[in-house]
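Structure tokens please, single chain.
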Amino acid sequence: MNNYTVETMSGMDVVSVAYAKTTSPKAAAEWVTGRQVQDRRDETQWVRVTDEANGAVYKFAFK
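Here you go.
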């Protein structure tokens, strides 16, 4: 399991920050938000997940 920083975003503004220890970035986004997510395209409301071990950034949007 990896540690992730999960930021809920509105445009480029951070709305909230939480931390999760899960098996994948997608699982972290869904656990923190309580909603299903998919890969982000250009949505205004989205979730940025950073893998704390390697700094990789993942972007998701709500389904």
